[in-house]
């Protein structure tokens, strides 16, 4: 048996000790919930009639309690390409359930917004809080106490964390996440990036830009770059919450359908009435949370998960912070370079060995916990360290072998870089995350006079006017959870990339988010405490020298901030429903705790 790396063991032990009381309260909760779950025979006939009335051909099986009843929580809509395939999933999943003596019902639906559609628009200010909304919707769906297990249909940015947070409050039930897979590869990522930068410089028309974008995002399925959505799928594999190998199989294929069938079979097998009971709350333990973080670091995944991992860990009574992530990052090597950190997309990643290769390398190097419960038929993470295939019509797994592309995937013994590329930077400007895996090492330290902005538009206007053509640290403040919901600032990337390509030393410092699409410009993001309410960023002035360094972990200014008056807090904007989320903004906690109003007010 491989010996666990001492840093992985040390961080895990620290998280276990820190979480001792809160984790025990959580385990006590789900034990009580399991004991209190009503036997359908003892529930009022009127209640049952309401639940079974629309079940059509499954009504008799439900009435007689013939087998377990599985609740489907779906984030289907057909505006979001990744979730469009889910439209037909419930009817298929019901067929698969009947084949193994069970039933399925759609317990409820959740919102599913697309950050790609709302980038730079007002709707982006609802994005982070949509995670809390999804968690609440999941809880409403599961509150009917009619289910013996959960199938969770979600893929994208806030949706998987939201589903997981909500489902964990029903952690006495088994659960399997059911992805639908990425769209086929379109326009190359290099070409897409080239046209975006040309447009930012005024050298490409809007029509040319739209044609390029449509060539990239062109069909049902998940966007193929390694942003938050695909990082979600990677983490569900690392935690053992997928059928092994399910993450990156394209929609509409026979292999995809075999995975969907297997998900139903597994959740039915794991229900409390069988002999392989695996409640979600026991599958998501401290080791599974560490595995999620390790996978994020080993693959160079989305920085959004520096917010999401602490949030869904809290829902299971587990405490993890950015110091833990940074310490893990120093121990975990970078094994993958997937766009925007490399040239190939997730389809190339999967073809080169994908998650089976990554997990096998991590396990063999002692960098991940093999002994998580998971949902695989063979308990633990080991079964996830193989690649899936169809043996005629049967889903099967085989050894993954060597990397199919050394420019995409490398072994732990010869990684792209010796650490995982997500570092904590801190100092008199607060604490922030720096995604070093996406940035050339020569740019890990930037020290320059700053220019301070409060909106993305102000940055765009200054860029267009040539005011940023110099070495500069661009500070975009009042973008935190309490200020405006902590939107992604992805619209900044092309302009900052142009400045960097012109030879300037450029960095971004913000209390907002940049996601997995942050690209090649050094960024200190999620700054905490945020500017609203007098945080350090509110004290900066144009021309103050700011240092951002992933080399020594610093985020500082040489300016004397003592005695300065904070910039005035901006008034929250109205419209696009933003006023309805005033409660979320008012009660949101800091980014390092997950930026959640719901978890904060629940005392979790």
From TrEMBL:
[4Fe-4S] cluster binds at residues 156, 223. It catalyses: 6-phospho-D-gluconate = 2-dehydro-3-deoxy-6-phospho-D-gluconate + H2O. Binds 1 [4Fe-4S] cluster. Keywords: 4Fe-4S, Carbohydrate metabolism, Gluconate utilization, Iron, Iron-sulfur, Lyase, Metal-binding. Its cofactor is [4Fe-4S] cluster. The keyword 4Fe-4S applies. One of its GO terms (biological process) is D-gluconate metabolic process. It comes from the Bacteria. The keyword Heme does not apply. Belongs to the IlvD/Edd family. Catalyzes the dehydration of 6-phospho-D-gluconate to 2-dehydro-3-deoxy-6-phospho-D-gluconate. This is Phosphogluconate dehydratase. It comes from Aurantiacibacter spongiae. The lineage of its organism: Bacteria, Pseudomonadati, Pseudomonadota, Alphaproteobacteria, Sphingomonadales.
């Amino acid at each position: 048996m491989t010996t666990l790396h001492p840093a992985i063991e040390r961080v895990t032990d620290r998280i276990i000790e820190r979480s001792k009381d809160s984790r025990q309260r959580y385990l006590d909760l789900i034990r009580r919930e399991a004991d209190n779950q009503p036997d359908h025979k003892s529930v009022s006939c009127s209640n049952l009639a309401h639940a079974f009335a629309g079940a059509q051909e499954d009504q008799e099986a439900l009435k007689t309690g013939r087998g377990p009843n599985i609740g489907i929580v779906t984030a289907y809509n057909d505006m979001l390409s990744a979730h469009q395939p889910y439209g037909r999933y419930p009817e298929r999943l019901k067929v698969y359930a009947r084949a193994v003596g069970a039933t399925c019902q759609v317990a409820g639906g959740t919102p599913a917004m697309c950050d790609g559609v709302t980038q730079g628009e007002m709707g982006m200010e609802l994005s982070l809080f949509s995670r809390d909304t999804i968690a609440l919707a999941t809880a409403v769906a599961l509150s009917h106490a009619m289910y013996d297990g959960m199938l969770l249909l979600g893929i994208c940015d806030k949706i998987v964390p939201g589903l997981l947070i909500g489902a964990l409050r029903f952690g006495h039930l088994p659960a399997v996440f059911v992805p639908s897979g990425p769209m086929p590869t379109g326009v190359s990522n290099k070409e897409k990036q080239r046209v975006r930068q040309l447009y930012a410089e005024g050298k490409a028309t809007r029509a040319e830009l739209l044609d390029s974008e449509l060539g990239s995002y062109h069909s049902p399925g998940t966007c193929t770059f390694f942003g938050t959505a695909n990082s979600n799928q990677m983490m569900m594999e690392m935690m053992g919450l997928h059928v092994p190998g399910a993450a990156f199989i394209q929609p509409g294929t026979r292999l995809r359908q075999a995975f969907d069938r297997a998900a139903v079979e597994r959740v039915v097998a794991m229900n409390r009435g069988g002999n392989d009971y695996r409640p979600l709350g026991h599958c998501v333990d401290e080791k599974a949370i560490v595995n999620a973080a390790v996978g994020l670091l080993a693959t160079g995944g989305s920085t959004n998960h520096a917010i999401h991992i602490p949030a869904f860990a809290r829902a299971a009574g587990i405490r993890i912070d950015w110091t833990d992530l940074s310490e893990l990052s120093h121990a975990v090597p970078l094994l993958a370079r997937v766009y925007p950190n490399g040239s190939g997309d997730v389809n190339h990643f999967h073809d080169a060995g994908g998650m089976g290769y990554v997990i096998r390398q991590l396990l063999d190097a002692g960098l991940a916990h093999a002994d998580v419960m998971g949902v695989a038929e063979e308990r633990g993470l080991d079964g996830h360290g193989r690649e899936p295939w169809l043996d005629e019509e049967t889903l099967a797994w085989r050894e993954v072998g060597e990397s199919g592309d050394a420019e995409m995937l490398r072994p732990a013994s010869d990684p792209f870089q010796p650490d995982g590329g997500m570092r904590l930077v801190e100092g008199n400007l607060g604490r922030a995350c720096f995604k070093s895996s996406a940035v050339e090492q020569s740019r890990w330290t930037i020290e320059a006079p700053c220019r301070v902005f409060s909106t993305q538009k102000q940055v765009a206007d200054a860029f267009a006017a040539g005011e940023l053509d110099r070495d500069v640290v661009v500070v975009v403040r009042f973008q935190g959870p309490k200020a405006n919901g902590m939107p992604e600032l992805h619209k900044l990337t092309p302009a900052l990339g142009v400045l960097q390509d012109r030879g300037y030393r450029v960095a971004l410092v913000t209390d907002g988010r940049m996601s997995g699409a942050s690209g090649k410009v050094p960024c200190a993001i999620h700054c905490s405490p945020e500017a609203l309410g007098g945080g350090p960023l509110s004290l900066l002035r144009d021309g103050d020298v700011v240092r951002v360094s992933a080399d020594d972990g610093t985020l500082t200014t040489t300016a004397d901030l003592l005695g300065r008056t904070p910039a005035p807090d901006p008034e929250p904007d109205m419209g696009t429903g933003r006023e309805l989320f005033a409660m979320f903004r008012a009660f949101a906690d800091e980014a390092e705790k997950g930026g959640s109003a719901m978890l904060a007010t629940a005392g979790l």
